[in-house]
Write a structure and sequence with these properties.
By secondary structure, the chain is an alpha/beta fold. It contains 21 helices and 15 strands.
């Protein structure tokens, strides 16, 4: 079904102008490094320097990029010197905007854990190079072979409103269908003789018992955190508590697509209010972390790593940097059928971009493709081949790659998931022995899907919606205002509670923002798309 959608979408983009080495025994062979590198005189003499702006997650601690073994090999193999500018995610938007405003651009932007608005900087301002298939097929054999091996092009999602692509895709095929899952401390349940709760009311009573009965058995009945979460803290925020109340809100917008293909504005729904009322109960009774309103993602992860938590949402358990006790004591929690989690699609998002002032397009594309050579790609993502320090990867007896990376390195000598990585399903299953954490995540997704609590139509369709640059600019500004209003009022609802008066005032805020027309823009776009 997804394949049909992508095929139709590709056609629609052209018509309508719509807008995120294997060893000898492996089945898919990459192009050789010599074929991936540039052939200009400057490259042959090792005189070419390319400037790369690299966006990384706030939580990552990396050694100097230029000192990473794989990066040094990359420069040696390609004959290209790389001048890196590393930008943390919290500074990304500011520094990206300042960079484009300055007129002094890097040659390449690598930004898969952050983002680049190619509608604005590519289509509207012309500050990014077009990177259509006729160009990438000439200079990126690894990228092209993997893209063409799929029944449906996974880079269709990169087509902008003018019918062009401005990005090289980033994709880690995993066969997954949702972001977060719920986890409950099974050891605490056993310690207190409790059954696994089956609905929100039962969960609330379990959290109360966690709070009052010294669930961890250390003699202190006041040091447990029954429910750990934050407010606007990514995967640990309010967006990932809402699914328990049947609200599969989008990760970037406060809307979702229901089973009838209707776009729903989540904050004004009854289910949203029910979630707010429940969270206030948890706050008032001390069932949720007392710092829920103020803490950031780093503080939350520190507390999760300590392992003294009863219930939380997370991507998975293995290789998340959690204390071993978390993996030993916590298990997947599957809500009842009233829950609804947002579905995700496995299509490429923007990974790398070339700026308009880049005078070495061919060499830049060859460099990016060299980063996608199998051994190089996995070394940049996981660490060195046959490493013995808890990082890296190796070949198994079948010639496939096994990850050795346990995710515990405090400071990494590899770029990690911030690097270029393009591994659609066919390629990754031919070349990669999925590590325990990937298998774990896939199994969690399968469990939720079988329970019928995964959204029917993915909110990812919003990213592919046929919207003009003008529409996108308008709704981006409105989405910022909406998000600010939602977060501010959610904080008040959690701490002060919800009354008819405060709820009606909250709803009136969005009437004043004309969210009906905002929703209608997306609805009109969704109505033109074939979604199955």
């Amino acid at each position: 079904m997804k394949k049909r959608f992508l095929a139709i979408l590709l056609s629609a983009t052209m018509i309508m102008g719509i807008v995120s080495g294997c060893g000898a025994d492996t089945e898919v062979e990459d192009a050789t490094v010599s074929e991936n590198t540039g052939d200009s005189e400057s490259v042959e003499n090792g005189n070419l320097t390319l400037k790369v702006m690299l966006g990384i997650r706030d939580v990552d601690s990396l050694i100097d990029i230029s000192e990473m073994p794989a990066v040094q090999r990359l420069e040696e193999q390609t004959g290209i010197n790389i001048e890196w500018e590393v930008v943390k995610g919290s500074d990304w938007e500011t520094k990206l905007n300042l960079m484009f405003a300055s007129g002094d651009y890097p040659d390449i932007i690598i930004a898969n854990t952050v983002s680049v608005d190619y509608e604005e900087y590519g289509v509207t301002q012309g500050l990014l190079q077009t990177l259509n298939d006729d160009l990438t097929s000439q200079y990126m054999p690894n990228y092209t072979a993997r893209r063409e091996a799929e029944d449906a092009d996974p880079t269709t999602s990169l087509v902008a409103s003018d019918g062009n692509k401005y990005a090289i895709g980033y994709l880690v095929g995993q066969n997954i269908n949702t972001n977060q899952h719920y986890f409950i401390n099974n050891t605490w349940l056993d310690n207190l003789g409790l059954e696994t709760p089956t609905n929100v009311d039962e969960l609330t009573n379990v959290l109360r018992t966690f709070k009052s009965e010294d669930a961890d058995g250390d003699g202190d009945a006041a040091n447990e955190i029954p429910l750990e979460m934050g407010l606007d803290t990514g995967f640990y925020g309010i967006r990932y508590i809402l699914p328990m109340f049947g609200v599969p809100v989008d990760s970037d917008r406060w809307i979702y697509i229901d089973d009838n293909k209707n776009v729903v504005f989540a904050p004004t729904t009854d289910n949203f209010r029910q979630c707010m009322e429940w969270l206030h109960t948890c706050y008032e009774e001390g069932l949720v972390d007392a710092e829920v309103i103020s803490q950031d993602i780093n503080t939350i992860e520190t507390k999760l790593k300590a392992g003294n938590v009863g219930f939380f949402a997370a991507w998975r358990l293995i290789a998340m940097g959690f204390d071993d006790s978390v993996m030993k004591t916590c298990t997947l929690y599957t809500p009842d059928s009233s829950a609804k989690f947002a579905r995700i699609l496995e299509v490429a998002k923007g990974g790398a971009y070339l700026t308009a002032t880049n005078e070495h397009v061919e060499d830049s594309l060859r460099l990016l493709d060299a980063m996608l050579d199998t051994e190089m790609m996995f070394s940049l993502y996981y660490g060195e081949k046959d490493a013995t320090d808890g990082t890296g990867w190796t070949y198994n007896e079948n010639g496939k790659i096994d990850s050795l990376n346990d995710g515990t390195a405090d400071v990494k000598n590899y770029i990690d998931c911030n690097t270029m990585f393009f591994a659609p399903a066919t390629y990754i299953y031919d070349n990669f022995n999925m590590p325990a954490q990937r298998v774990e995540k896939t199994e969690y997704c399968r469990t939720y899907d079988e329970a019928g609590i995964i959204q029917k139509y993915s909110n990812d369709y919003f990213k592919f919606a046929p919207l003009t640059s003008e529409q996108l600019q308008s709704i981006t500004l409105k989405e910022t205002d909406i998000n600010n209003a939602v977060i501010e009022n959610v904080a008040s609802f959690i701490t002060n509670g919800v009354t008819d008066q405060t709820w009606n005032q909250f709803v009136a805020i969005f009437d004043g923002m004309d969210t009906d027309s905002y929703v209608q823009i997306y609805q009109d776009a969704i109505n033109t798309m074939d979604m199955e």
